[in-house]
Amino acid sequence: MNDLLQIAIDGPASAGKSTVAKLVAHQLGYVYCDTGAMYRAVTWAALKRGVKLDDNLALEEMVAEIKISFTPSDEGQRVYVDQDEVTDDIRLPEIANNVSTVAAQLSVREALTKRQQEIAFKGGIVMDGRDIGTTVLPDAQVKIFLVASVKERALRRFKENKAKGIMADLEQLEQEIAERDRKDSTRAVSPLVQAADAVKVDTTMLSIEQVVAKIMGIIQKKSKK
Ligand code: CDP
Ligand code: CDP
């Protein structure tokens, strides 16, 4: 496998995108880019500055002023907004419940899409999100659309919270995930939708290792063509 590929992994919340994208990138020696973290970081900055979350123009100005950066560390990628480390804060429910509103704004999408295209330009990248295969990298050689039932995805978030010592309400998690899916899939700009040339992988009954093996198989098949 000599060519440096662009690998796009899209799908709804908690389908396992970031977990498997990181592992696939590691196996290939590629860079991993979590585009959801970028939308979350913009949401964090808007809440901190008191910018209205659906004010397209105000968000445009704010996004032009802030710098979102990633740095690798032993515990994974750290996310910064200017000098502030926001790695943990962007995972809080307050961000999860507001990010879809910010991500629906055209100015935010245009600015972040441009940045993501620059990051992926040379290939050798695994990028996960909602619109990577459709909008950000329409020519990506490998496109995966990861799905799982809402029940299974809520359970995954529940377990994730429990491991951090947070007891969440499973039913509420299910409702929040379903609501975010609805907003992400119905927005006017770059909605969450499977690209025509993406391979769908249903992870409901699969372990992380099984999903990674499946994706590595798809990549190998594609790169032989
Ligand atoms: O990890 P999780 O699936 O919960 O979400 P995420 O990947 O961190 O993305 C958070 C939110 O950012 C999504 O619900 C979308 O509203 C938005 N997003 C987007 O619109 N486009 C992307 N390429 C990535 C994320
Ligand atoms: O990035 P996305 O929101 O799509 O999902 P994630 O944060 O990678 O995965 C959500 C949770 O599901 C994590 O705790 C994973 O360990 C878990 N997971 C799983 O249990 N089985 C899979 N096949 C994939 C992920």
Distance between the termini: 11 Å
Note the overall shape: globular
Total E-strand runs: 8
- Based on CA atoms alone, the radius of gyration comes out at 17 Å
Neighbour order of strands in the largest sheet: 2-6-1-7-8
Bound molecules: cytidine-5'-diphosphate
Low-confidence stretches: none
Can you identify the CATH class?
A: Alpha Beta
CATH topology descriptor: Rossmann fold
CATH architecture: 3-Layer(aba) Sandwich
Q: How would you name the CATH homologous superfamily?
A: P-loop containing nucleotide triphosphate hydrolases
Strand coverage percent: 15-25%
The helix-strand sequence is EHEHHEEEHHHEHEHHEH
- Number of DSSP helical runs: 10
Roughly what is the average pLDDT, rounded to an integer? Answer: 94
The residue fraction in helices comes out at 40-55%
Subcellular location: Cytoplasm
Catalytic activity: dCMP + ATP = dCDP + ADP; CMP + ATP = CDP + ADP
Keywords: ATP-binding, Coiled coil, Cytoplasm, Kinase, Nucleotide-binding, Transferase
Organism: Liquorilactobacillus aquaticus DSM 21051
